[in-house]
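== Folding task for one protein ==

=== Format: two labelled lines per protein ===

==== Paired sequence and structure tokens ====
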Amino acid sequence: MFAYAINTMKSVVTDQAFNIRVETENGNYIGPASHVLVLLTNYFAGKKIFDEDKDGYANILILKDDSILTKLSVIPDLLKGDVVENDHIEYIKARHIKISSDTELETDVDGDKSDNLPVEIKVLGQHIEVYSQPKE
């Protein structure tokens, strides 16, 4: 699973949102966000949350509210697979994504620290190459 995150899991228990700008070919989001996830899969935390095959697209989930109660309220929807229907989450499906903020924020890719914002992400469908050692 590939997950590109703005504001890491360490901040889940803190109440802090940042002014975020997410620009895509399928719509934009400008406003507060405590977390932004860019997923290249239909699954999050082991739970299928998107039914449609979206090869070549990223699933962008923006948690708009920063309160711990809101974050906890998302858990039942996540477990049911209805997270995109939650009023506190903005959902966008896109191939070309620009994310910026008026605050310096670190990103993380699959749990590893990555570039600070702004970032630009381009999803290339069916472009994964796998290298492995030859069989002996």
In short: The longest strand covers residues 18-24. The first helix runs from residue 68 to 80.
